[in-house]
Amino acid sequence: MLESLLNKVRRYPGVMSKVALAPVISSFEKCNSSGFSNGDDTAVLKNLDGYDLFAIEGFIPNFVAQDPWFAGWCGVMVNVSDIAAMGGRPRAVVNALWQSSDESAKQIFAGMKAASDAYGVPIVGGHTSHKSDTTQLAVSILGHANNVLSSFEAKSGDAIIVAMDQRGEFRAPYLNWNATTNAPTERLRGDLELLPLLAEKGYLTGCKDISQAGLLGTLAMFMDCSKTGADIFLNDIPKPKQVNWEDWLCAFPSFGFLMTCPVDQIDEVLTLFQQRDIDSACIGQVTERPSINVTFVDEANVINKEKTDTKQTAVFWDFEKNHFLGFRKSEDQKESLCL
């Protein structure tokens, strides 16, 4: 049943790791010195010709140990996605590596270099330590935007659009959907360029890249930042036929974005992604109601084992009953940094 599926997604470690960030919310100011909300995919600072974007990603040590080359690749990939989600273009990355093995470090650097070449983003510096019991990796990025997108600006009545590149496969043992390492360079760069293009055309009201929290977990972060809710139609979410719903809703896609836009801009947004063969769809609507409701029409024995044609609706997250990141606290409370 739908409720059983949503319960499994709610308990997914990627979702729970985001909920666990709530205590951090009280540690930092609501806005930075440029007036932009803290808690977005990147920090934003105004400059003379637009906006500087800063982000950093740290990686789970077990992931780095098990797949060091791909961890290095992801160090660049996830950062350029954060920049794109803010409507920006990446300029340069730096890294910090604590290594326990020269061979592991060699593979990490090779993965970073491969992604740097593929995305056209130079590695311009970093810090490396050879005196560590474990291998730990963090990568930071600088980008630039002419028009900033944010996860704090979704409005009730906006359409919710998802775009996820399905031209890939899971890279075991995690639910990392890899559609990048074998993709042509021109495709990788051209696909990412869609986000700053959408920002500069003014089509979107908000955007967030899909993280380790998966599609619904990232949506909960997005709606929490905007202090809104959502109605989502599961049947409308594009999904590879060979992947089950639980895995797909928990997947961390190498190219995946949630966007909001006025309903009269839906076709323009979808057309840009479809022209580049990226699966995209309008999957719901932003609501004033402080919860995320999911509806599914069980037409073909997909979720339950009874062949029926029934409409099911269940709540994925009720922000009044359970905090997510904690952005719905009173205005006099402080909020968090980039997540």
From TrEMBL:
Q: Give the InterPro entries listed for this entry.
A: AIR_synthase-rel_sll0787 (IPR024030), PurM-like_C_dom (IPR010918), PurM-like_C_sf (IPR036676), PurM-like_N (IPR016188), PurM-like_N_sf (IPR036921), ThiL-like (IPR006283), UCP036540_AIR (IPR011413)
Asked if Cytoplasm is a keyword of the record, the answer is no
The reply on keyword Iron is no
Every PurM-like N-terminal domain range: 39-143
Q: Where is the PurM-like C-terminal domain?
A: 192-295
Output the SUPFAM superfamilies linked to this UniProt entry: PurM C-terminal domain-like, PurM N-terminal domain-like
Question: Might you name a Gene Ontology BP term for this protein?
Answer: thiamine biosynthetic process
Sorted UniProt keywords: Thiamine biosynthesis
What Gene Ontology terms describe what this protein does at the molecular function level?
A: thiamine-phosphate kinase activity
One Pfam family, please name it: AIRS_C
The signal sequence is: none
Q: Which domain of life is it from?
A: Bacteria
Q: Which PANTHER family match?
A: THIAMINE-MONOPHOSPHATE KINASE
Q: What is this protein called?
A: AIR synthase
Question: What organism, scientifically named, is this protein from?
Answer: Marinomonas ushuaiensis DSM 15871
